[in-house]
Amino acid sequence: MDDLLDDKAKIEKRRAKDETVRCATPVLWIIIPCYNEEKVLPLTSEMFLNKLLSLISAGDVDEQSKLLYVNDGSSDETWRIISDLSVKDDHVIGISQSRNRGHQNAVLAGLMEAKDHCDITISIDCDGQDDIDAMTQMVAEYKKGSEVVYGVRSDRNNDTWFKKNTAESFYRLLNMMGAEVVFNHADYRLVSARVLKEFADFQEVNLFLRGLFPLVGFRSSTVYYVRHERIAGDSHYPLRKMLALAFDGITSLSVKPIRLITLMGFIVAAFSILGVIWSIVCFCMGRTVSGWASMTSIVCFLGGVQLIALGVIGEYIGKIYLEVKHRPRYIISERTGQFYQKESDR
Prior knowledge:
Blueprint (H helix, E strand, L loop, with lengths): L3 H14 L10 E7 L6 H17 L8 E6 L6 H11 L3 E6 L5 H12 L5 E4 L10 H11 L3 E6 L7 H16 L8 E8 H7 L9 H8 L3 E6 L13 H15 L2 H29 L7 H34 L6 E4 L1 H9 L1
Parallel strand pairs: 1-2, 1-4, 2-3, 5-7
Antiparallel strand pairs: 3-8, 4-6, 5-6
Helix pairs in contact: 6-9, 10-11
């Protein structure tokens, strides 16, 4: 395996010379998070490697470019497969987290591991659904001046009606709630080392990467592609996880729900005042009749509003609780290759 420490020194020297000048053949690290992917990894790993080698042979990226697999605490043979792949080809390396910490943390671990060793990174899922040929256009957009290139689905024709509508509603809800996201973009993106250097200062424990990268700024562009069917295995993002991700994105990036609660409180208070006036008028006119149903309805309505409000506020307090602890967002327990073994022994 090539000496990655020498690669890091070369890259830093090149950046120190002139950070604004783009290398014609940047060093690319492709970040591939994996969680229980023993069925699909043997099929897609060859695709990823062939694509990287084709980019190298075409002169689009440097020979020192790598595939970085991130094992997110898999309970199957995923890590063994990654280790075997790294032995077979020097362009393949891998890291393994000490336990499962979720997709977003796995992507972050790969990006932070790569940022000092490359010029650009491309994060892509392991399942082979994202069109790997879009990487060529992403690299071309980077050479034109873009620091971030978002991979965006051109359509959702392969999705079921339910999946299509829930996914599109997911993005609309995020934007409506104040979370700035690129419509139909997941985590397939090119990010330059310059952006990653600034992104490293974002210390959120509650990660929602597709909403955080737009906050970093810098020049960005989009590349459209057709998303394919999953090659093998089962999806790790069912509706339950999608809803949880949406809620995490909203509460991590926006305070709009709390403001909506405040607005709702004013509206309920206004109607309550009108109700009090109406009841006084009815009393003065002698039309008041004691009623259990009306009283129960009012109590249930106000009780429901209060519980919803407390739940949303509690969610924010919970996130504050996690943030102030400053727990590590990922812990790397193993690394493949001679260089990574030296690092883990320190």
